[in-house]
Amino acid sequence: MLLDSNVIIYASNPKNIHLREYLGKYEKVLCVSTISKLEVLGYHKLKLNEKQYFEKFFAEIIVLPIDNSIIDKAILLRQQKNISVGDSIIAATAIIANISLLTHNEVDFKAIKKLEILPIKNLL
Q: Per residue in 1-29, pLDDT tens?
């Protein structure tokens, strides 16, 4: 299961206990795209404690690299849909790896065929 960047951020909030419990059940099959690492850790207003939390998170989870097949698929997605670079890489990663995408922004991905979307709205 691929985590969208927003899921990583939501899960960092202790208030989102249902999401954290859900992720705990699947921790052995969770992974993220390298672009999510960039999006989360690259946020310019990240506080030191948040940075430390996210660095530990990314050190403990499988981070899928962005290779040429993912870039090629992301290019096609951007040509076909109105989708951001980050979202196109995340969607392409899930499609190429043949795994579902856990996200809070299902609207951003709903028009992409061959992408299984798992919404988290019921977990927040």
A: 999 999 999 999 999 999 999 999 999 99
